[in-house]
Amino acid sequence: MTLPTSLPLPDLLQDTATKNWQRLEDQLPVELLAQLKALPAAEKIIPCSDYVTDSLSRFPVLLTELLENNWLESPLSAAQLRVILKEKLSVVSTENDLHRVLRQFRRQMMTRIIWRDFSFQANMWQTTAELSHLADICVDEALNWLYDFYCPQWGTPYSRAEANKEPQPQRMIVIGMGKLGAYELNLSSDIDLMFCFPRHGQTQGGKRSLDNQDFFVRLGQKLIAALDNNTADGFVFRVDMRLRPYGQSGALSLSFPAMIDYYHDQGRDWERYAMIKARVIAGDLEAGNSLLEKLRPFVYRKYVDFSAIDSLRDMKEMINREVRRKGLSNNVKLGSGGIREVEFITQVFQLIRGGRDTELQERSIRKVLPIISGLGLLPQQVTDELLAAYLFLRNAEHALQGVADQQTQTLPDAAFAQARMAHIMNFPDWSAFEAELERQRAKVSFHFANVIAAPEDEEAGGLNISAELAALWQGQYDAESGAELLSAQGYEDASATFERITRLREGRVVQSMQREGRDRLEAFMPILLSAVTESETPSRTLERILQLVESVLRRSAYFVLLMENPAALKQLVKLCAASPWIAEHLARTPILLDELLNTATLYTPAEREPLRDELRQQLLRLPEEDEEAQMEALRYFKRAHVLRVAASDIMGTRQLMKVSDYLTFIAETILEQVLQMAWKKLTDKHGRPAKEDGTACDPAFIIVGYGKLGGIELGYGSDLDLVFLHDAAPQGVTDGERSIDNAVFFARLGQRIIHILNTMTSSGQLYEVDMRLRPSGNSGLLVSSLKSFKDYQQKEAWTWEKQALVRARVVAGCSELTEKFEQARAEILSEPRDIETLRQDVVSMRIKMRDNLGSKPEAGGERPLFHLKQDAGGMVDIEFIAQYSVLRYGAQHPELLQWTDNMRILETMQQVNILPTEQIAQLSAAYLAYRQAAHEASMQMTPSQVPSSQFVDYREAVSNIWHNLLES
């Protein structure tokens, strides 16, 4: 909202204006008073702020300095504030002088900050930033002065001696919490602080040695006194130390190890909430930031943590009780629709998702709200409204506090105070201000209810939680009556389901759960038992979902996620009912439950470019040196996007060919990033390898995909058939300080790529890699030069290796080398061949595969099952027909060499009249039918074999074409 620049002074304020100006006239020299009156903002500020009037009348010297430096009408940076205070402290020699200088400096700066805030020369964000800088600098400079002053008396604290390490001097670290940590301090706020120090040890050089903790406790007490004591000059900042570990009963200063142990072992949910805004404001900044980094996992969980909502609800309810008890409904901070509710809305998303979406690890509400909408967690209109309301409410808070430098957020009842507040806020009267206030608070209250409200207060998404199902889960039904209840609910195998539920409840893991997790499971299971009845086969669906339940019994926050989001539970039931593969996928990686929250993305797989951009953005958030975090991010990325493909596939929104396209896009995107990661690590260490012509390409390396990857036919469980090629000088070396032979460099590059792809982490394996198609197979070099690859293919390769090359294409790497590979591939595939030898080689290989991999006949010679891939008339017959045609006719018809996927090769065979249109149609239809059946078998986790009575016509047609083309 844009506020008007000025309004006439209300009648109710005229007497106060007269009194305040009279006081200034009595105390200030005439020239100084004239300069003050000449300031445009004075007409508004003097009647509105008794604190400013009191400061200027009591301390004319402060006003002189303010006017001489034009500080009332100019912003001051943190650096400028520090220079001013340092100069004032330069003459301080006693602790009493320190107290006096700090208080006068604070009064002077508070006067100018209120002046600029009330006159709207500074907006709220500028005001809160300056206040925060003021607090930072007062704390830091006071700490530095006190440390230097007391070290000669108490000794300088040193760390304990360690093996091969000299003891190091220790300094205290001051951590600012709350609004100070977020650079959003208000006009009359406490500052919430914590004191700590790196290591235990003893002081040296003092009158007697002290334990480091004793030293820093004493120093902390002196610092609090320097800031908090109320003297004739006032105070600097009220200091609140209750947020420290163990609260008021805890030591005033703790070592880093003690801090880490406390938060990881005893830290409570409200302390996670408080630590979001924690910031090192004074002392040893580098050491303090390293501590906060170690505490980050306590604040931001790696998984999506919906348990945070319950904690925030409890905190809000506690505040609500306090508001009702003390009659604080008119409190702009704690009342309904107040400042605290905006803070809760932002922090609930930070606590839930901050471990995954690391950009949410931001202290400032001003910065977090746009990030929340940018991630799609709230609509932008909502975050815009919340930000506008927060700005209005914080301005109102300042209007209350800047009058007398009092710590209040309660709206006034008296007509005079109301008129003054409305005037500060630039409203014509109280009723106009109050109307706008109520409008803003109503918006906050509405959005708060939508985000924080308990699910039982909302529509439960059609899921009816019956008391009977709750009693059944709790063991109050015997087997017979329990089966009857489940049968009545629609369970198709009620007795078996009852036994399965009983086994889960009485199992060792459930019985040993901690109370909080057990309570969550108790609340969740009846909801689940009801939800699965929406499927056609509740017993089967429940059995699949229980895999997930069992996998997260020690991570019960996932139960909260599903209870908080009935729509997500509905999607879980739908997907698991449709596919055991999806159920197993989720059970292996429960963090993917987060994907169920957004149906817009769940059923809409991303195309190649959005995939690349998303993965690039995710990896940019991680430190380059943290390979473990990068590998985990790659695995999550793959599993999340494969889930989206599977979801759209199961729901019938994607055709088979598009499913394979999307799965291939995911693999290619990951391979591109893996190559970049491996290349950077090796080149940072050894430099770049030179090519034959002495130049370098980043990278002078390609990854060639074979098989299903090369043919753009990846399935959900497909491995990656890869070949690595380079284009560097065979005898060359890298150009780094730690140079190595090119061959060694590329061997290590290949090994690192395979390591990233193959390594089994807590999130599983990225892809299984098969390198057997490289020249000379497992006995050959891991990485070959393009020249040696071409030589091998032309002089030594078997026919089956050239068949494999038909489906080979570059999936990542240097574009220049890619072109060279494509040229080499075309030359190899189109070289002259003896047709009869080619035919015999292809047929021989096919017969060998059928015998070894196909279905086995029974005693009478009949095959009761048809193997979709390997049996006669199956998929591999069609693939071999396509590959044989490319190898035989590639020289005559170069257009055959263009494609690596079977469907487009078949289409091209029709265009160049290798086979008649009718036969191509039969092959294409059969191939798609087989692939669809194999694909469905994969999703249902059943073998790729069907009764021999199926696909009879397709098998006969394919076999006839095979015979006519290759065996006649």
TrEMBL record:
GO terms for cellular component: cytosol. It catalyses: [glutamine synthetase]-O(4)-(5'-adenylyl)-L-tyrosine + phosphate = [glutamine synthetase]-L-tyrosine + ADP; [glutamine synthetase]-L-tyrosine + ATP = [glutamine synthetase]-O(4)-(5'-adenylyl)-L-tyrosine + diphosphate. Keywords: ATP-binding, Magnesium, Multifunctional enzyme, Nucleotide-binding, Nucleotidyltransferase, Transferase. GO terms for biological process: regulation of glutamine family amino acid metabolic process. It comes from the Bacteria. Its cofactor is Mg(2+). InterPro entries: GlnE (IPR023057), GlnE_rpt_dom (IPR005190), NT_sf (IPR043519), PII_UdlTrfase/GS_AdlTrfase (IPR013546). It holds the Pfam family GlnD_UR_UTase. One of its GO terms (molecular function) is [glutamine synthetase]-adenylyl-L-tyrosine phosphorylase activity. Residues 1-456 are annotated as: Adenylyl removase. It is an enzyme of class 2 (transferase). Transmembrane segments: none annotated. This is Bifunctional glutamine synthetase adenylyltransferase/adenylyl-removing enzyme.
